[in-house]
Structure formats: structure tokens, C-alpha cells
Amino acid sequence: MRRGRALIPQRRRVFLACEGESEQSYGALLSRLIDAQHRRTYLDIVLVQPGGGDPLAIVERASRLMSDRVRRFGAYTERAVLLDTDKLGLSPERDRRIEALAEREGFRLIWQKPCHEALLLRHLDGCAALRPVNTARAAEELQRRCATYRKGMAAMRLANLIDVHGVLRAAAVEPALDDFLTAIEFPRDPAG
Predict the structure, then answer these.
(1) Fold for domain 12-183?
(2) Whole-number Å distance between alpha carbons of 136 and 57
(3) Where are the domains positioned within the chain?
(4) What is the pLDDT along the chain (192 residues), one digit of tens a residue?
(5) Beta strands 78-84; 41-47: pairing state
(6) Strand segments (E) across the chain
(7) Which residues contact 146 (CB under 8 A, 6 or more apart)?
(8) What is the pTM of this model?
(9) Which of 30, 108, 150, 161 could form a disulfide with 80 if both were Cys (CB 3.0 to 4.6 A apart)?
């Protein structure tokens, strides 16, 4: 008698749009940390360039890229965009359109205040409450606290700086990141 093959459940596909290569590496790090605990979630990490830091342009491009991927590969169970806040307020009319577009597309907006380096800083032990006032200060502080950090470093190297505990540390002070991690089944008990 022949035995049937064991069925492998299909992973939940999650769309994660990233403004730059640093965010893309961060998404890849999240994916690695999830895979170390379970294989129920697949992060489709998409680099959204050019965007020039304009949040609306990034969300618009993410929308087009996501639509194309849905058409080619199927639907996503979750959709998110990592965005810096450092350009918010330069064009209030454009800023107002971001939320409406995100809602229409089902995007979770994960705002990095003021930038990705500041978000990374909040992953480090003793730095969760730090709120640099601008991008330059965030980069300086991250470099001061973590001399090996380089903008755009690969996920494998980023893993030397940030682990599951660091991600959870940042999530504790970043509600949108925390909500996204819950939605993608990020491990909350790394030991278990």
C-alpha cells in the first residue's frame, strides 16, 4: 500500500514595502527570526524606489508594486509599508492623501520616527526610549552606540546587532510595529 505525501501547509503571504535597502535588510532579518520559530509566514519584502523619501510617493509606488504581485502570484494576508516621518509636513495636502490610500489598499503604515536609524536604535538594550529629534542625530546616536552599524548592511550582519529580544524591545515602544509583528506571528517567546 502506498502512503500519500504529507501536505505542507501554504505560508501566509505578507507584503512589506521598504523605502530603502536598510529597511529591506530589516525586513529580511524579521523573516529570518520568524523562520527560526515557525514556517507559517512568508514576508515578500519589496524595495520601493525611487521614492525620494516622499511618503505619499512611496505608498503610491507600493500600491502599484503590490497590485502587480497580487496579479502574478496571488493575494496577501497582510500588507505593510515602512515609512520615515522626517519628510512629513513638507506638503500637508500630500500628507493627507497617505492615510486614505493606505486604508484603500489595506496597508499598515509603520512610521519610523524620524527615520529608520532611530527605529533601529530603539532595538538596542537601554535605548528603547530614545527619540532623536532628526535624522542626523538618529544616525549619530546609532553609530555611537553601535560602531559596527552601516547603512544598508545585509540582514546577516544586522543579525549581529539585533535579535528577537531587540525586536520585541522596539515593539514595546512602537505600537504600529507591535501590531504588525502580531499579525505576522512574530515569536513572542523566543525560548519556547
Answers:
(1) Rossmann fold (3.40.50)
(2) 22
(3) 12-183
(4) 566 676 667 889 999 999 999 999 999 999 999 999 998 999 999 999 866 679 999 999 999 999 999 999 999 999 999 999 999 988 899 999 999 999 999 999 999 999 999 999 999 999 999 999 999 999 999 999 999 999 989 999 999 999 999 999 999 999 999 999 999 999 987 654
(5) unpaired
(6) 12-18, 41-47, 78-84, 108-112
(7) 124, 161
(8) 0.91
(9) 108
